[in-house]
Amino acid sequence: MTQLSDTDRLPAGSTVATIGMFDGVHLGHATLIDALNAEARRRGLQSVVVTFAQHPQHVLHGGGLKMLQTLEQRLRAIEQLGPDHLVVLEFTRELAQHDSAAFMRLLRDRYGIVALIVGYNHRFGHNRHETFADYVRLGRQLGIDVIKAPEYLGEYAPVSSTIVRGLIASGKVDDAMRCMNRPYRLEGTVVHGFHNGRGIGFPTANIGLLDPNIILPHNGAYAVMVHVAGRTLQGMVNVGNRPTLNNGTQLSIEVNIFDFDDDIYGQPIALDFIKFLRLEFKLGSIDELRAQLTADRDKSRAILSAMLSPVQTEAEQKAKK
């Protein structure tokens, strides 16, 4: 896949494109990009996914909307779906003034599109009252075939970025994982925290330097897969204020990595959220906290081992061949 910017150009008449924010790159997005790739192959052309570096709401209305992915995460997930090219446009107030005809003309002239695959309920351009029939009519005037992509109708339909954000915000990370076909991931850096965990037998890595525009799961404990120091490990994480240890109101994200005790301060770390364990609540003593964490660890091990068993079995079978 080749990543292009607004200064790059592709030959006239060489591509089929689709447009979207693609936050979360969920199963609905996968259905759309699969349709794009199939249409491009049918025509003997190349496929182009057009997305934006910034969410339009952030540019037009300021902050507030929390994203499911950083730009880098989003681009990696789109790449895995196999388009030939990925165009990342800077969303500006000037670009926002383009109507749909002007935007299609821009794509045709810069990136050589002859067909545009449109999501079944997607709108683009500043006139949000336009219909799919309007896009088809405008496309004919510009020499662009406008084609409606199939709606995702799989087991987890309906799915949208808004739905997935709601699942994450309510702690339903397992449901979000099914909608995205992969776990929800937070990426940050290991920073110094309160250093209380080691004293009770549960050393933790404190996760900091998170993108402030990324949505956080609901406060509570979760079973997670941890990617750090070139390894993938099992663990459990607490998102919240650690009320039993009286650490104040500052939000912390602290992960206990099972069977791991390396010094990883300052290193990048990624957490894949697999399953919600429990809400955060204040316990009466350190002994009660230790007992609760022991139960959380046992439950997490069971959840993660059950999830990993089919994957490990398949890998072992391949290794024997």
Descriptive overview:
The protein has 321 residues and is an alpha/beta fold. The chain folds into 2 domains: 2-148, HUPs (Rossmann fold), CATH 3.40.50.620; 183-320, Elongation Factor Tu (Ef-tu), domain 3 (Beta Barrel). Helices cover 35% and strands 24% of the residues. The chain contains 9 helices and 12 strands. The protein has helices spanning 27-43, 56-61, 71-79, 93-96, 100-111, 132-142, 161-169, 173-180, 286-320, and strands at residues 2-4, 15-19, 46-52, 85-89, 113-118, 145-148, 184-191, 205-208, 220-228, 231-240, 252-257, 268-278. A 6-stranded parallel beta sheet has the order 1-4-3-2-5-6. A 6-stranded antiparallel β-barrel has the order 7-8-11-10-9-12. The longest helix has 35 residues, at 286-320. It is elongated and about 75 Å long. It starts with a strand and ends with a helix. The relative contact order is 0.12. Residues 313-321 have low confidence and may be disordered.
* CATH C-level category of the largest domain: Alpha Beta
Distance between the termini: 31 Å
Total strand segments: 12
> How many structural domains does the protein architecture include?
2
Strand order of the largest sheet: 1-4-3-2-5-6
Percent of residues in β-strands? 15-25%
Share of helix, binned: 25-40%
Give the SSE string.
EEHEHHEHHEHEHHEEEEEEH
- In the CATH hierarchy, the third-tier topology of the largest domain is known as Rossmann fold
Largest sheet: 6 strands, parallel
Q: Write down the overall mean pLDDT.
A: 90
Indicate the overall shape. elongated
Q: What is the architecture of the largest domain at the second tier of CATH?
A: 3-Layer(aba) Sandwich
Ranges where pLDDT stays below 50 over 5 or more residues in a row are 313-321
Count of helical regions: 9
Overall SS class = alpha/beta
